[in-house]
Amino acid sequence: MAEVDSQGRLLVREHGLLPGLQGEAAYQAGDWRLSARADLYQHRIRYRGQVQDGPPLASNTGTRQGRVGFEAAHPLTAGSSLIGGFEWDHWRRDIEGHGSTLGLRERYTTWRWLTGAQTQWLLHSAASLTGSALLVLAQPERLRVRFDGHVYDDVDFKTRSASGLRLTLTLQPALVAKLSITAELDALNIRRSNDATLRQDGVAVGTVAQPRHSRRALGVRVNYSF
Predict the structure, then answer these.
(1) Which helix or strand (DSSP H or E) is residue 13 part of?
(2) Dihedral (Cα; 143, 134, 189, 14), 10-degree rounding
(3) Are the beta carbons of 112 and 86 closer than 8 angstroms?
(4) Per-residue pLDDT averaged across 106-118, rounded?
(5) pLDDT of 117
(6) Can you give the pTM of this predicted structure?
(7) Engineered SS bond to 85: which of 103, 114, 125, 202, CB 3.0-4.6 Å?
(8) How many CB atoms lie within 10 A of CB 191?
(9) Where are the strands (E) in 148-178, listed by range?
(10) Contact assessment for residue 144 and residue 120, using Cβ atoms and an 8 Å cutoff
């Protein structure tokens, strides 16, 4: 994750590994394949940013990302399909304080709409390779910010609508029909939010905003079907 200011200068960068689990259930109804999916990833990742008045800050962010979604696919040809769907995304950032600097607790939730296509790129006696490309359109994130030590009141506001892309490649070995390996690249860009009022014991003391930010995830999954 990266946040930038209005001039495009980097403010915050978070990066690291997020191990997790995914479950999916699918149903074939005639030509339609209907599927429901849930993902959950959680770990501490590195935080490289700065405090409000400028000095750099190195810390960690306890990160949890979860998604619940539904997709419908309809064949176009023998090896390709159109895909459409939606998902609900939950993202939690617990930015740890360091020294005299207090941390933040942020919660983001949003609905996303997905549309695109899937096609079989390779069909061989040893394995098959399938790829998909989906356009991702996200509603404005609902964001709640909680300050360590309750130095300010909690703040609730929205970011802006966003767009992105999700690319996947799935390798299916012929010798282990129930096992597959999927690589997924997920990218989303979110514009800066409007300013929200910052309060202390109910009294307005300033404003707060979520900067323009981008989310990038490269995932590798080992799937077992039963």
Answers:
(1) strand 10-15
(2) 80
(3) yes
(4) 97
(5) 97
(6) 0.90
(7) 114
(8) 14
(9) 155-158, 162-173
(10) no
